[in-house]
Structure formats: C-alpha cells, structure tokens
Design a protein that fits this description.
heterodimer; A: mainly alpha; flat; B: mainly alpha; 7 helices
C-alpha cells in the first residue's frame, strides 16, 4: 500500500460501471472479429489446400500473402485491445511497436527477396 | 506481508525523474519489457522455420498431417488445430474480462473469469498432449510401433526438420501456456484470499493478463506459419 509506484499509476486504470459496459461491448466485438478471421483462415486452408492440384502456384501465392495480412490484423487487435497497448501513452506504444515494425519489415524482405538464395539448387539440403 | 514488499520507496529513488516515464507502474512496464524480449525467442524459431522450409523441397502440407480429431476416425483437416486456436482466443477473452472486472474492484467477477481462463488453459494443454501423441504415433496411429514414429531424427511425414520444428515451436509455446496456467492459479489464490482487495487494486491480474495474451499472440503466429502456410 505504501509503495508510491503502485498507488500513483495502478489506480489510474480503474473505471466505473458504465465505462465497464462500453469496454465489455468492445471486447465482444473484437472476439467476434478474431473468431471470424480464424474461421476464414481454416476454411481457405481446407478449400484451397496447397496439396490440391486445382490450386495454381499463383493462387497459393496470393493466399499466402492473405494469411500474413490476416495474421498481422489479428495480432494488432490482440496487442492494441486485449493487451490494452492502444490505450497506453504514446511513448509506451512506440517503445513496444517500433522495434517490431522494423523486425517484421526486415523479415518480410528476407523471406520474399532473399529466400531464393537458400532455395533449390543454390543451397541443396538433402536428407 | 512485511518486509521489502510493503516498504515505502520514495518516488525520487524509484524513478530518477520523479515519475514513471510511461505513466505506468514499474511492474507492468517490466512485464512489457519481458514480453518484448520473449517475443524475439519465438521470432527466432519462426525465422529458422521459414529458412528450412525454403531449403526443403518436399516440406509436408499440414492439412495432410493434422487431420485427426479425438475419438472419431476420418479426415478432418486442421479441424482440431482450429479448435485449439479457438480455445486460446476464448481464454484470452475471459482473461481480458477478468482484468476489466478488476478495474471495477469486482472480486466475484475476477474470480469467475480467472477460473474460466484457467479451465481454457487446461483444455489447451490437454489438446496439446493429444496432438503430440497423435503426431508421434505416425501414420498407423500406434505409438508402440517404432518404425513409423515421429522422432527428432526421422518422421514419416517429411524432412526431419518438420518434426523438429513441431516439437520445438509447439513445445516451447506449450511450456509458456503451462507456466501461464500456474501463474494464473497463483493469482487466483491471491484474489480469493483478498490480497488485492486489501491492496485496493487488481493490477497483478492485469500483469498476468499481459502474459496470457502474449501466449495467445504467439499461437496466432505459430498457427499461421507452422500449420497454414
């Protein structure tokens, strides 16, 4: 109780009954959204399976990017709403997000642009 | 409860500028910093997974490996993984509801939603055990026949890395879920004992909530990069 770090900042997060109702409504909306996205991902995975000969390489490529975008949307909602980062101070948001924006851009670059270097005959790994 | 925990720390000593730079308590900020570094571990796993997928021409398609569901024979591609994902999302929702109840100092609400979260965690862990044993058992579904069992060195589905990444990525994530459930139980006991009611706020529920959402967040990525792509 006497620790001033706890007193100052932890009580600031408390809210009233009416505010709680609004927050719960928002939680409900995000839940529906996350469930729908997951259901769509699974359905696409079953209907347009990579192993299905009718699905061309181009289609699968498009699906792949779709999956990555949907995953980032889901991750964004979890971090911003469930983890409450969207309602924190701007300095906190930037501290968490900026390193990961760079990291994710770097990963996309490596995976899309540089992956050819390790694939196929350039770097055969046969087991 | 005397000692270090209840000793007053002057703001000047705790935050050298006299106040928290993020308007956030020390514990919550440190939970965020821990999660930032923990995410890099999983990032490394997924980067390595992507790298090996490119080097292996015959990487298996997951809907041809994960098509079992418990008690029923048949072909249900990805159905059980989708169920596990859903369980984790729902337990994340009950966690956020527990945090919300904590902000209203509603002890009964926090208790109810924490119990729901813990149950969700146990369902996920049980599913993980089933998933692992099905994966290890291989194509004939028998774990006692070693010939076609999936091990670190070989598996009936594809290159050895396929099973290695399955064990490492889902195992590491499963261990996070396990520790999350344990921490949730500890916090629930504290809630029931009235520790946080006495303290005047339920911020510990919020901190453990951050960890639990992080576990859900990681699974979102594992689901995409291991199972879907």
């Amino acid at each position: 109780m006497e620790r001033d770090d706890i007193i100052e900042y932890s009580l600031g997060a408390q809210h009233s009954e009416e505010e709680g109702k609004k927050i719960r409504k928002n939680i409900f909306k995000v839940t529906i959204l996350l469930s729908v996205i997951t259901a769509v991902e699974v359905l696409v995975g079953i209907l347009f399976s990579k192993s299905n000969p009718d699905v061309s390489a181009g289609t699968w490529e498009a699906i792949k990017y779709g999956y990555i975008i949907l995953t980032l949307v889901k991750a964004g909602y979890i971090v911003m709403e469930f983890m409450h980062l969207g309602h924190e101070r701007k300095s906190m948001k930037l501290t968490v997000l900026v390193p990961y924006i760079f990291f994710i851009l770097y990963l996309i670059f490596i995976a899309i642009n540089e992956a050819v270097a390790v694939s196929g005959e350039n770097f055969p790994l046969n087991y | 409860m005397a000692g270090e925990v209840s000793k007053a720390i002057p703001a000047k000593e705790l935050w050298e500028g006299g106040r928290s730079p993020f308007s956030m308590s020390y514990g919550k900020m440190m939970m965020w910093f821990f999660l930032i570094s923990d995410a890099l571990t999983f990032g490394a796993f997924l980067v390595a997974l992507g790298w090996f997928r490119y080097t292996a021409a015959d990487w298996p398609v997951s809907d041809q490996v994960f098509f079992h569901i418990p008690f029923v024979h048949g072909n249900f591609p990805l159905a059980y993984v989708a169920f596990m994902t859903f369980v984790l999302i729902v337990s994340s929702v009950t966690m956020v509801l527990a945090v919300e109840a904590g902000h209203r100092n509603d002890k009964a609400g926090v208790t109810k939603w924490m119990i729901a979260t813990i149950i969700g965690g146990f369902i996920f862990l049980g599913s993980q055990v089933w998933e692992w044993s099905t994966f290890i058992a291989g194509t004939d579904g028998l774990i006692s026949t070693w010939g076609d069992n999936a091990t670190i060195t070989s598996n009936p589905y594809g290159p050895p890395q396929y099973a290695q990444f399955f064990y490492c990525v889902t195992g590491f994530h499963g261990f996070h879920v396990f520790s999350g459930v344990i921490i949730n139980i500890v916090i629930l006991i504290n809630v029931l004992q009235g520790t946080y009611e006495k303290r005047g706020h339920y911020e510990m529920v919020e901190k453990v909530g951050l960890y639990w959402h992080f576990v859900d967040l990681v699974w979102v990525f594992v689901f995409t990069f291991y199972y879907l792509l």
